[in-house]
Amino acid sequence: MTMTAVALVLTLGLVQSTPPVAKATTGKDPDPQAGLAVQVALDRAGFSPGALDGAIGENTKKALTAYRAANGDEPPRVDPVQTYTITEQDAAGPFEPEIPSDLVDQAKLESLAYRTLLEAIAERFHSTPALLQRLNPDARFAAGETITVPNVDPMIIPAKAATPDAKGQPDVTVTVQKSTSALTVTDTAGKVIMYAPVTTGSEKDPLPIGDWKVNGVAINPPFRYNPDLFWDADPSQTKALIPPGPNNPVGVVWIDISKEHYGLHGTPEPAAIGRTESHGCVRLTNWDALRLASLVKPGTVVVFKE
After folding, report:
1. What is the tally of structural domains in the chain?
2. Which of 89, 131, 171, 237 falls 20 to 30 Å from 193 in CA-CA distance?
3. Side by side, which strands form the sheet with 173-177?
């Protein structure tokens, strides 16, 4: 299946030194940047805590446990923040301030772009808008302004998926575990090279346990909404093509797998990953989905387990 075909058949089954990480993870830390330091260190090491919010919550604890298990140590300490100057291009958007919750109504929009510049910059630096506001209490978030952001590799949405080199791309296995709401990518030696929190199905749309394979990857795809595939859909609704964008139901990435109507994909709500339910598919933050997309290729094994 070509990348174009994959995109068209989507049907959603839906700066300062820091203290040692170990000290920052015990109890309620009084230093507001200590929690962020842990999250940034994990993110940079490929063990995502999800959306960075500066708090040592369940997603961060799970990521830290996974890193320790894989590496036998703490993630390397890094400066938790860096500076970024907002450009005119950033401020120009385009933005879509009013995005309806109804999927059929979303199909009437030209795109599902970011709602605001703040939302766009927050996602670029893997964080919540609230964290950026706490780091920059006096900021207007306007062109020319230099702000403080988490010290992570910024998310850049590529124009299209890279064509994987089947010979040059190392073999990996993607495992999604329902009980822990976690995804891991392991190399042929069994070493974990990526970890991320995920949202996996619900009671009415359970994760399809079993072994599957990647068919292909679509970047910034449109979404074909089919109400027949949603148990909670309004019976009066019709099929609709929802335009692409980071606030699209599948975010900026769709990784198609051999289970019909199922895939691994991004999300318009990164802060909800690992905390809510989905319509059966596996959701990640957009930046984690892009990272995952760079590691897989057609034929990559995907294991869904309890």
Report:
1. 1
2. 131
3. 192-197, 182-186, 173-177, 301-305, 210-219, 253-257, 263-265, 282-283, 199-200
- Would you say 34 and 24 are in contact if contact means Cβ atoms under 8 Å apart? yes
In a domain, 51, yes or no: no
My answer on whether omega of the bond before 94 falls inside 30° of 0, hence cis, is yes
Residue 163 lies inside a defined structural domain of this protein: yes
Let me know if residue 241 belongs to a domain.
yes
User: Domain holding 217: CATH number?
Assistant: 2.40.440.10
- 203-212, pLDDT tens digit by residue? 677 899 999 9
Query: Which domain does 294 fall in, by range?
Result: 3-13+159-305
Residues of the chain with pLDDT under 50: 1-30
User: Is 215 inside any structural domain?
Assistant: yes
pLDDT in tens, 62-74: 999 999 999 999 9
> pTM value?
0.86
